[in-house]
Amino acid sequence: MLQLREHHRLSPELLQTPASGLARALGGPTLIHLPGERRPALFVSVLLHGNETVGWEAVRRLLNRYHDGQALDLPRALSLFIGNVTAAAHGQRRLPGQPDYNRVWPGGEGPETPEHRLMAEVVERMATRGLFASVDLHNNTGLNPHYACVNRLEPRFLHLAALFSRTLVWFVRPRGVQSQAMAAYCPAVTLECGRVGERRGVDHAMAFLDACLNLSEIPDHPPSRHDFDLFHTQAQVLVDAGASLGFGTAEADLVFPPDLDRLNFREIPAGTLFAWARDPRMPLQVRDDRGREVTSRYFERIGDEIRLRVPAMPSMLTLDTQVIRQDCLCYLMERMSPAGSGSGSPPSRGARGGRSSR
Question: SS3 for 206?
Answer without folding.
Answer: helix
